[in-house]
C-alpha cells in the first residue's frame, strides 16, 4: 500500500465509525456516551483529512488552494492503480 | 442536499477480472433488492414519516445506500476492465456487452432493467417500515447468495462488508418501528395510518 492508500484507509475507517454511530444516534439521540465517542472520532479525523488533502487533493469541494481545479484529478474512487 | 466525498465507503481493489461474477454482482446495482432500489425506497419513504428519529434514520440509511451503490459499481467495473472478446464470450458476458459494452447499467443478474416496481412507498409508517425491514433481509440474502459464487478474496471482502451493513440497518429499522408503536394505541397499532389520520398518538401532539 502506498502512503496515499494508508492515509485514505485511516480516514475511511474513522468516517465509517462516525456513520455507524450516527445511525445509532438517530434512534438514541439522548445517548451522551455515544455523543462523546462521536466527538472523539471527529477530532481524530480532522487532522488526517487536512493532511490528505494537502498531499493528494480534495476529498470534498471545499477550498481549492491551487491555481487549478484539483477536484478533477485522477484517481477517482472506483479506479485502482493496482 | 447532498455532498459528494471522493472516497468509497469501503475500499474496492480487485486485481483479477471475472465477468461471470460481475454478471451476478450487478444485481445489487440494479436488481430487485439492490442498492439503487434501497436508496430510492428510503429517501422517498422518509417524507411522510411522523417522527424525527424516523426521518433521520431513513435519510441516513438512504444516503449510506448511495455509498453502497457506488461500491457495487466499482466492483463490477473492476471485474470487467480490459476484457478480450474471447473472455467476454467464454464468461457469457456477451449478452450484456452488446447493449452496454463495459459500462455500468442498473439491471438484475438476469438482465432485467431496474424498476420502481421493486420498491414500495405506501405513506403509512408502519407499512413502510415493514417494507424497509424486509428489504434489508432480502438484500442480505442476495449477498449471501453472491458469496456462494465468490472465491476471490478481493471481492469477498467488500461484499462481506456490504452484507454486514444490511444487518445493522435492519436493527435500526426495528428500533424505528418500536419508537413508533410505543407512541400509538398499544391495543391496536393498525387502527389508523399515523401519517394521515388524526389523533393516532397517545400525546395527540403529532399529526
Secondary-structure blueprint of this entry?
The complex is a heterodimer of chains A (82) and B (207).
Chain A: H1 3-27, H2 32-56
Helix pairs in contact in A: 1-2
Chain B: H1 19-25, H2 27-30, H3 35-45, H4 52-79, H5 85-90, H6 94-100, H7 125-148, H8 153-181
Task: Give an account of the 3D structure.
The complex is a heterodimer of chains A (about 80) and B (about 210). Chain A has helices at about 5-25, 30-55. With about 80 residues, chain A is an all-alpha fold. In chain A, helix 1 (about 5-25) runs antiparallel to helix 2. The termini of chain A are close together. Chain B is mostly helical and about 210 residues long. Chain B has a single domain, classed as Ferritin, core subunit, four-helix bundle (Ferritin), CATH 1.20.1260.10. In chain B, about 55% of the residues lie in helices and about 0% in strands. Chain B has helices at about 20-25, 25-30, 35-45, 50-80, 85-90, 95-100, 125-150, 155-180. The two termini of chain B are about 25 Å apart. The chains are: A mainly alpha (about 80), B mainly alpha (about 210). Chains A and B meet through helix 1 of A and helix 4 and helix 8 of B.
Q: How many E-type strands of chain B?
A: 0
H/E topology pattern of chain A: HH
Mean model confidence by pLDDT of chain A: 93
CATH class group of chain B: Mainly Alpha
How does the major sheet of chain B shape up?
Answer: none
Number of domains of chain B: 1
Tell me the helix content of chain B: 55-70%
Amino acid at each position: 500500500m502506498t502512503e496515499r492508500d494508508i492515509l485514505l484507509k485511516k480516514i475511511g475507517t474513522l468516517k465509517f465509525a462516525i456513520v455507524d454511530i450516527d445511525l445509532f444516534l438517530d434512534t438514541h439521540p439522548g445517548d451522551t456516551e455515544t455523543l462523546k465517542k462521536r466527538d472523539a472520532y471527529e477530532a481524530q479525523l480532522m487532522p488526517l483529512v487536512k493532511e490528505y488533502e494537502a498531499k493528494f487533493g480534495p476529498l470534498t469541494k471545499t477550498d481549492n488552494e491551487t491555481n487549478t481545479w484539483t477536484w478533477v484529478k485522477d484517481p477517482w474512487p472506483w479506479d485502482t492503480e493496482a | 442536499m447532498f455532498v459528494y466525498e471522493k472516497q468509497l465507503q469501503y475500499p474496492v481493489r480487485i486485481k483479477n477480472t471475472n465477468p461471470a461474477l460481475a454478471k451476478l454482482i450487478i444485481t445489487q446495482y440494479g436488481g430487485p433488492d439492490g442498492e439503487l432500489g434501497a436508496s430510492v425506497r428510503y429517501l422517498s419513504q422518509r417524507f411522510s414519516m411522523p417522527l424525527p428519529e424516523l426521518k433521520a434514520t431513513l435519510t441516513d440509511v438512504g444516503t449510506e445506500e448511495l455509498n453502497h451503490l457506488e461500491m457495487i459499481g466499482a466492483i463490477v467495473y473492476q471485474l470487467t476492465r480490459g476484457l478480450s472478446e474471447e473472455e467476454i464470450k467464454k464468461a457469457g458476458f456477451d449478452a450484456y456487452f452488446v447493449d452496454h459494452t463495459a459500462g455500468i447499467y442498473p439491471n438484475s443478474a438476469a438482465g432485467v432493467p431496474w424498476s420502481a416496481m421493486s420498491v414500495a412507498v405506501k405513506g403509512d409508517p408502519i407499512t413502510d417500515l415493514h417494507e424497509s425491514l424486509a428489504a434489508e433481509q432480502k438484500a442480505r440474502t442476495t449477498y449471501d447468495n453472491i458469496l456462494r459464487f465468490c472465491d476471490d478474496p478481493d471481492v469477498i471482502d467488500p461484499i462481506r462488508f456490504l452484507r454486514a451493513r444490511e444487518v445493522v440497518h435492519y436493527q435500526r429499522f426495528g428500533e424505528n418501528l418500536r419508537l413508533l408503536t410505543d407512541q400509538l394505541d398499544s391495543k391496536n397499532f393498525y387502527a389508523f395510518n399515523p401519517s394521515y389520520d388524526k389523533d393516532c398518538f397517545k400525546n395527540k401532539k403529532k399529526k
